[in-house]
Structures are given as structure tokens and as C-alpha cells.
Amino acid sequence: IKICGIKDQVSMSAALNCKVDYIGLVFYQKSPRNVSISLAKSLVKLKNNITKIVALTVNADNDLLLNIKQNIFPDYFQLHGDETPKRCEEIRSKFKIPIIKGIGVKDKKSLNNATKLYDNVCDIIILDAPSTILPGGNGKKFDWGILKDYNPKVKWMLAGGLNIHNIYEAINLINPPAIDVSSGVEKSKGIKDPKLILNFVEKCKNYNG
Question: What's the chain's Rg over C-alpha atoms?
């Protein structure tokens, strides 16, 4: 389970107490979930030995990536923009940090094409609804039926519009190896709700289908 877009200490503590597998911090100024380097530093001080820290960026330059690496020491860089496979490979090689690549799912053909391009240069693929205004965190789901028989070489996560009401539907339909939630645990856009985080994680962990 990945909780993305944390930007305050109460929500950070809630996610860590739930022992989620990943916490995403967003370094993208146009996002309502954007955090500064200094705020991110204060948040990662709370981290445990279980949860991995993911630094989400969108078409970031090397200066920003270096700044994040030197101050936050993330376990992963999540590239959620238009980064080419070559750019992903370059970042992974230069910064020696595993890469998560976000892919917007439009149809089966484009998904298969994107997977072939990226599954040799990334460590994890996140499948999200196609971006509208923002790349990710829009609370929109896509047609999960596209993922029937989806089997990339690398681990993948399901994202896009997941919440406490539809997570069992998603698991029953496609049984994703991992899930990524952001707006589904917010009380308003960009503002996480610790209670929703707890409820969502508990619902996932209690699944026994």
C-alpha cells in the first residue's frame, strides 16, 4: 500500500503507524500536495524502518533531483511526467536510486506499448488514470478491465480514484500487487485525513476474498 501526497506530520504519523509500504512526497509546485524540501525533511525524520519514502517529481531537472537526494534520501524517485525511457535510465544511473514510473492508462494497446518501453528501465510501474489538469491525484479511475492479463516484467501498482468504497472491486477484478491512494484518503483536495488513512489501510488488510 502506498499513500501519496502526505504533507503534514499528523497524516505522516498516521500512515507510518499503519505500517504502509510506501509514502509519497510530492515535489511539484503546481500540485496541491506539493511540499518544500524543508517540510519534507521534517516529515522524513518521523519515518520507521518499514515504510519506504518515495519522492514524486514531474519532468524534474537534475538540480531538483540532487537537492531531494541530498536532503530527503528517498528510497525511490517517482517520475510522473513525460519522462522518456532514456531519461528514466539516466536518472536511475546518475542518482543510484530505484525508479517508479507513472503511466496514464488510456487503452490496452497504449498500455502494452508503454510497458514495453519502461519495464526495462524502471523498478516499479504505477498505472494511473490519464492526466487531465494534474499528472496524478485527480481522483479519477480508469477502465480496470484493460488490466486483465496484465503481466509486466516489473512490479506494478494500481492508482487512480481508489477509495474505501471501490478498493474491494479493484482487488476482486484485477488483484493488483500493490495499490496507490491519494485523493481517496483526503477530506478536501490536498488535505489528508488521518482517519481515512487508517480506515483505508485496515479495509485493505482485512480483505479475505
Answer: 16
Nearest to 102 by CA among 86, 121, 78: 78
> At which residue does the C-alpha cell 474505501 appear?
164
Query: In the chain, which ranges are E strands?
Result: 2-4, 22-27, 52-57, 76-79, 99-104, 124-128, 155-158, 178-181, 186-188, 191-192
Give me the phi and psi of 62, to 5 degrees please.
-65, -30
3-state helix, strand and coil shares in percent for the chain, rounded to the nearest 5: 35, 20, 40
Phi, psi of 41 (to 5 degrees): -60, -40
What's the pLDDT band for 133 if we cut at 50, 70, 90?
Answer: low
Decide if 55 contacts 68 (C-beta within 8 A).
yes
Both ends of the chain: CA-CA distance in Å? 17
Annotate 20-31 with DSSP letters as a single string: -SEEEEEE-TTS
pLDDT digits (tens, 9 = 90+) for 82-110: 999 999 999 999 999 999 999 999 999 98
Q: Which amino acid is at 15?
A: A
Q: Give pLDDT tens digits for 172-198.
A: 999 999 999 999 999 999 999 999 999
Report the interhelical angle of 37-44 vs 9-17 (nearest 10°): 40
Other CB atoms closer than 10 Å to residue 30's CB: what's the count? 10
Taking 90 as the threshold, does the pLDDT of residue 164 lie above it? Answer: yes
